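FIELD: query
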Amino acid sequence: MRISCTLVHTVTTFAYLLENAKISQSDITRHIEWLVQTFMIVPTDEALLKSALKSRIVDYEDAVIERAALQCDSSAIITRNIKDFQLSGVEALTPESYLKKAGQI
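FIELD: result
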C-alpha cells in the first residue's frame, strides 16, 4: 500500500547515505525496495522542473518539492524546514507535528 509520495532524488540520496554508513548491499536493496513499494515515486521531469519555476517559493529545490507534492495530491510536506514552505500550496509539517496530527503520538 502506498501511503504518500517522494521524489526520485530522495531515493538516490537515501541509498547514498546507507552506502556511506557501510550498510550491506543486500540491506540497501531491501530498504530501497521497501521505499519504492511504500511511496509513489514522483519523477523529476521537465514538466515538474518548469512548474517549480512558477512557484511562489523562492528556493528552487523547495519549489520542486512543493510542485511534486501538488502533483501527487499530497496533503502535507513533511520537513524539518517548514519556514521555507510558508508560501507552499501544500501544508508543511514537522515529522512530530505530522505524527501528532495522524494520531500516532
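FIELD: remark
The two ends are 22 Å apart (CA to CA).
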